[in-house]
Specification:
The chain is mainly alpha-helical. The protein has 27 helices and no strands. Mean pLDDT is about 90; it is low at about 385-390. This is Armadillo-like helical-containing protein.
């Protein structure tokens, strides 16, 4: 199995997994440790994970026990590696998290080796995504430990800690966790992390941090504090320039939340946010298009940003195309909001009509989409005034 993945797959198909799992019950610690390491090797090959999952709760219990027993350091790290792959499903995460696994993993995060810390917080990242387990994180005082890893762990530990904190702060009832992160100077460490990622070009590790920032600023109390920190806006707008769609999408979600404040709206417009978002409207992915137009809708509340948008050659056309009813995965209300915000301009109305907005809007009116009738009436009134002028 040490030769390569091909040999691992052969071993799994020949029935080695159940045999190794049985060795986890051995009275010999060295044998148990080696068995855990073998399970971790199987878990590293994606095609073998279904075989491991077939061992069910028994295997999970053995691995969880390895976290809290007298297993060697390498065995505990191997158990974390295996659990990181196995707890991607909700049921497996519940099985581990509900039997004391969170406390054991936090202990490793607190006093383990750098590599075992990264693996342990990787498991916690999965467990944090299960809402029923989030209260245990609070009870076990997880936030200070996670923040410490986020601020001073290895590159992988920082990324996993950011993702774990992001998962913990997702949801409407996470205000307590968000305030705990704020008290531990989470915003300061988040700023440092994003600055470091921007300087080092580490696109692959920035997404969880952006997700965490989005969750924090969605709580208006924390958002107001963030709005007074001038470093964040340039960092977020820099992420809009990423070559990776997921990162641009996450950054646009932050723009949507952070642009709640007038000062931030103006600053984003001044720093070129409008142009970046208009470019994102041409993306292949529906989600990227939607979050871009959502962010634009908020920014258009500022008159200066409306002027900047009108100067964009493809701005109106790109937004009108989002009205197409055949584009099912994009909420039309944001595109309508953007177009209504500039509909006072005769030139803009003409551009909308030429781009085919009336046809799209009539179908949206028939479907009773909010705002569609008001915008259609505005465009048709503009056409009538054009006739009277002639």
């Amino acid at each position: 199995m040490e030769k390569g993945d091909k040999e691992v797959v052969i071993a799994a198909t020949e029935g080695a997994v159940p045999a190794v799992v049985r060795l986890l019950d051995s009275p010999c610690r060295a044998t148990r440790d080696r068995a855990v390491e073998a399970i971790a090797r199987f878990s590293a090959v994606e095609s073998c994970r279904a075989v491991l999952a077939g061992e069910g709760v028994l295997l999970l219990n053995h691995l969880a026990r390895a976290l809290e027993s007298d297993a060697s350091g390498p065995a505990r790290e191997s158990a974390c590696v295996a659990l990181q792959a196995l707890t991607l499903t909700r049921d497996a995460a519940m099985a581990v998290g509900s039997r004391g696994g969170i406390g054991s993993l936090l202990t490793i995060c607190n006093s383990g080796t750098p590599s075992s810390q990264a693996a342990a917080v990787g498991v916690l990242r999965n467990l944090a995504g299960v809402m029923e387990l989030q209260e245990i994180f609070l009870e076990d005082n997880a936030i200070p430990i996670l923040i410490r890893l986020f601020s001073s762990g290895t590159v992988l530990a920082k990324e996993n800690a950011a993702a774990c904190l992001c998962n913990l702060t997702t949801g409407e009832d996470a205000h307590g966790l968000k305030l705990s992160i704020l008290r531990e100077d989470g915003l300061g460490y988040l700023k440092d992390y994003l600055e470091s990622a921007a300087d080092g070009g580490k696109d692959c590790s920035i997404n969880p941090a952006l997700g965490l920032l989005r969750n924090l600023v969605s709580f208006k109390y924390i958002g107001e504090i963030t709005a007074t920190m001038p470093e964040f806006v340039p960092l977020v707008l820099g992420a809009l320039d990423s070559r990776t769609s997921n990162i641009r999408t996450e950054a646009a979600k932050v723009v949507f939340e952070l642009a709640y404040w007038v000062k931030v709206k103006k600053e984003m417009g001044h720093l070129g946010c409008i142009s970046r978002l208009v470019s994102m409207l041409e993306a292949k992915g529906h989600e990227e298009k939607e979050v871009a137009v959502m962010a634009l809708a908020v920014l258009m509340e500022c008159s200066g940003n409306r002027r900047l948008f009108r100067k964009e050659d493809k701005g109106i056309v790109n937004v009108v195309l989002l009205l197409d009813p055949l584009l099912k995965n994009v909420d039309k209300k944001y595109a309508i909001s953007v177009l209504i915000s500039i509909s006072q301009s005769r030139k803009c109305r003409k551009q909308m009509v030429v781009a085919g907005a009336c046809g799209y809007l009539q179908r949206l009116v028939d479907a009773e989409v909010e705002g569609a009738k008001a915008l259609l009436d505005s465009l048709e009134k503009g056409k009538l005034w054009g006739v009277f002028t002639k």
